[in-house]
Amino acid sequence: MYASEPPTGEPLPLDLVNTRPLSGGSRTDLLGTPDRLAAWVARQGDRLGEETSRMDEDAEAAGPALAEADLAPVHAVRDHTEAALRALMAGRRPPEAALRGLADAQRAAPAVRAPVWDGTAVVAPPRRTGPLGVRLAALLAESAAALLADPAVARVRECAADDCVLLFLPAHPRRRWCSPTRCGNRVRVARHYRRRKES
Fold first, then answer.
1. Whole-number Å distance between alpha carbons of 164 and 158
2. Rounded to the nearest 5°, which phi and psi values hold at 3?
3. Residue 42 belongs to a domain
4. Is residue 193 a part of any domain in this protein?
5. What's the rounded Cα separation, in Å, for the pair 10 and 161?
6. Is 183 part of any domain?
7. What pairs with residue 123 in β-bridges?
8. What is the pTM of this model?
9. CA torsion sign, 62 to 66 to 72 to 78?
10. How high is the mean pLDDT of the chain?
11. What band does 65 get if pLDDT is binned at 50, 70 and 90?
């Protein structure tokens, strides 16, 4: 269903989890290479804030911004986020390992607001240190923790299409699909053909 670009537009933790859609009956990793992860980071743009511009600066200074070693910490945060969300969706307590994993990812590259003079004023943007993947994972884990603690997490749903596992946070309580144009249309078309065949 998704050849190469993961869907975006949901809260950041859901967009991260949605980078493993079903394709041909099995889950596909749309962040399986450094290039794919870099493309996803670019698509998320300003949602990743200061860390994205730091990654761009690092790329200009030292070549490719993301390497193979940067994938594991991001994948771990994605797995922990999905485990916690799916447990909550099922009315269960999130696994302790998932919650601890998200906390550990944040501890690996904490955001520090070190005040500096920019020539006209004191500014204190959050800065993280360490490898790019660790910094990105910390930022994503922070976002996941914020969503998990938000009462809105109770509204997170899985797409109602049989062959889709994507998660979304509906703005309207009647929303059933990750995308009305993607899964919604496919389900409606299939339903239409099924009715025609039965009549």
1. 8
2. -70, -50
3. yes
4. no
5. 17
6. no
7. 116
8. 0.85
9. positive
10. 87
11. confident
User: Residue 63, CB half-sphere, CA atoms under 13 Å: how many?
Assistant: 2
Residue pLDDT, tens place only, 43-58:
998 888 766 655 555 5
Structurally, the chain folds into a number of domains equal to 1
State how far Cα 13 lies from the chain centre: 4
User: How far apart are the C-alpha atoms of 72 and 74, rounded to whole Å?
Assistant: 5
Burial of 151 (0-12, 13-18, 19+ CB in 10 A): exposed
Task: Please check whether residue 162 lies inside any domain of the structure.
Answer: no
CA 29 to chain centre: 12
Contact indicator for 109, 92 with CB cutoff of 8 Å: no
- Pairing, β 167-168 against β 157-158: antiparallel
User: Which domain covers residue 52, as residue numbers?
Assistant: 12-154
Taking residues 164-170, report their average pLDDT: 93
